[in-house]
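Record type: ASSEMBLY
Status: queued
Input:
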Amino acid sequence: MSTPLVLTYVGFFVMVAITLGGGLMAVSARNLIRAALGLIIALVGVAGIYFVLEAEFVAVVQILVYVGAISILILFAVMLTRGLMKRDLPAQNAQWIAAIFISLLMFAALLYVTIGTNWRAVETKVAGDLIPKIGTELMTTYLLPFEAVSLLLLAALVGAIVIARE
Amino acid sequence: MDFLNNIFPNIYEWIAYWIQSLVAGLNLPKDAESALVTAIMALLVIIAIILWMVVMVLILIWLERKNAARIQDRVGPNRVGPWGLLQPVADTIKMFIKEDIVPENADRFVHTIAPMIAMLPAVLMFAVIPWGKGMFPVDLNIGVLWIVAVASIGTIGVFLGGYGSNNKYSLLGGMRAVAQMVSYEIPQVLTIIPIVLMVGSMSLVKINEAQSGWFGMQWFVFAFPVGTIAFVVYYLSALAEVGRTPFDIPEGESEIVAGYMTEYSGMKWALFYLAEYFNFFIVCIIGATLFLGGWNGPFLPGYVWLIGKVYALVLLGMWIRMTWPRFRVDQLMNFAWKVLVPIALVNIVLAGIALPIFKMIGF
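Status: finished
Output:
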């Protein structure tokens, strides 16, 4: 049973609202843990958008990597850094005008590209189970980038252990 | 037999038909009508499953207390209702009327939202559980991955609960909980890989169907040695993941009061408590689905088999809880990283070797 289009729209806008709300909380919170929480909410919202767009695999990987792993890392880093646990840290410094300017510029550029591109709508869904296809592609066509990324992660892992031992 | 198997799908069909005819009376446009029906049915399924889970957990709590009492040579709850059966209901009412205390220096927002986040993964995971033949809310083609991904959200809730209380015992408990959950997630995920290899799909429905041979007794736990090892490692790491004794150092009452729950009271505490039991119940469901054939079994209808297997696992967990002392923190970490993870990794290699042989004998 396919989802009615109305519900897709409702879901999409709910998820967009969650993402934007989370993002707003992340940049405006004076407390770092709350900012991290806002970031987590925004990331969950993005995963929700992927779900609404029927990209389940990307959505689940988004939750697994960003919400499950990276956000825990961020929370830990905040807790283990001295002085960051204080309740009210200044949320902005003297560069906030420049930051707003750059953000607006970035937004304008992205908007220009998004509107200017002639997006091709794919009429038919890719048939069958996508996961085996992704796996096969990773192990054949994209083997070299895949292995390079693994190597990079391994190097990061070893580096982290070396730093931790000092 | 077919009637018993199809009773819940049939009820769903009847209600869907009823709602459909109700909505048709509103004379809405076609699109709005189908959207409304879909939304109402989805909502009904969600409410039904959550109510069903709450009832299950109330039974679970009663069972746990009764069981613990028997093992410790006591009687257990026996005043409210026959055999104390209404004790959880009385406890729930007590929880509702308790005062909700927030410590003065706590981060009020984080303190409030933490139990909700802790509750989230269990509720989300019900979305992909097949309860019987044709009885599943959603058949995600990445069901297993969904469960793994969503389970990691609970860690955030526990951690925020520990931080938001502004209490050193809470914080210690939260830190311990995160370290433990992050560690034990790894063997748990690694044990699922052999099953995914054998089935060739991550959909829980497909995994169930793959175990339906041999009159419903072709369970993966019988795929010796790969499935058996995977099951044992999964069960141990699942017990640790949900923080039950002997793995309950995040809330070890003799060391850090009650860990991340120290400063919680009333319904917020009840949410944490409920989340713990939800999680315990759901890891048992997933264990039964992945390794014990899910709803597959001879003679009885599917959902009876699933519930039976789940309660067998639950009782085993209670037995372990009541008869083992608590691990020390370092022992706990060593057990995860030096015992369970290597076994699970070797098991994946074994699965790769054994796969053609299993294919030959029909697994």
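Annotation: The helical segments of chain A are 5-28, 32-52, 56-80, 96-116, 130-139, 143-165.
Annotation: Residues 56-80 of chain A form the longest helix (25 residues).
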